[in-house]
């Protein structure tokens, strides 16, 4: 591959910008707001996504409408899971909607991604779910739905031949309900994704964790996508870089197109002082479709003005060693983006 001095400068500039952008995120926080009836699998799904028990599962029925804040930290990134037990549940002495609205407004000051969670094996939107959608809309305005996704759980309970239709129909019904408060333009754009926290695939035999991840990354607020990526990057299967390189310690990297060089360090895992192996659960492997969506969103987050194919390939080659040099979650994220941009 021909690789000029000016390509090298562009590549280094890009990697520097990327590194700075990621370093800027350290200390940033992001929040998930979980909405849906008790027992539908809100906690289980956020735990699957984050690869760690970030919200407690099961065992408690709300008796009042509450707001729970679960503060977490992974790879040096802080994030909060805001749960709304009772909001979509039917129970006696449900309490005053108006007080709850006020509470939500005063206690929640940032939401980067909202999940409306419902079971795929149910057929209709219940009265309590409708009430929950109404309250959320009144508390935060229609904008809350611009960074929202509909998550269908218990997908494994649906027969394979009914799966497609169920997903389509349930999505339509929930969007229809949200349309009442946010209008069609916003509601029709809310993506939906089906999951099953007890198995890796949905009834179409496809893995769902990568799809959930991609939807979250694409839908969440612009300031939160990179921190989210950093908090989960250790679980992402890295794409193979397209060009092999020989790494010479800074400041010179020589990209070459030779076959695999055994001394090339680019496929070795980065030593990661920021997180431990015990947090690993399922590895997240993106499909081509996922990568395209992640690529598109990432280019809106990081200035990537006219990066030609050569620079793209060079970024792919250099990102590995640069990432290794930087280390930790930031280094791993640089390595991941390198693979992404080099395609
Ligand atoms: N079969 C199946 N069970 C699930 C799924 N998600 C959660 N569960 C189970 O449903 C129960 C309630 O889950 P939890 O995450 O606590 O629900 P939450 O109240 O909405 O937070 C637990 O026993 C979970 O193991 C799913 O996708 N499929
Ligand atoms: Mg829960």
TrEMBL record:
Q: Locate the transmembrane regions by residue number.
A: 325-342
Biological processes annotated in GO: protein transport
* Top-level taxon: Bacteria
Q: Which cofactor does it need?
A: Mg(2+)
Keyword GTP-binding listed: yes
- Topology in the membrane? Single-pass membrane protein
Record's compositionally biased regions (Low complexity): 258-269
* A GO CC term attached to the entry: membrane
Q: Positions of the region Disordered? A: 257-279
Localized where?
Membrane
Q: Name one GO molecular function term.
A: GTP binding
**Residues in domain AIG1-type G?**
27-237
Give the UniProt keywords, A-Z: GTP-binding, Hydrolase, Magnesium, Membrane, Metal-binding, Nucleotide-binding, Protein transport, Transmembrane, Transmembrane helix, Transport
Q: What is this protein called?
A: AIG1-type G domain-containing protein
Native source organism of the sequence: Brunnivagina elsteri CCALA 953
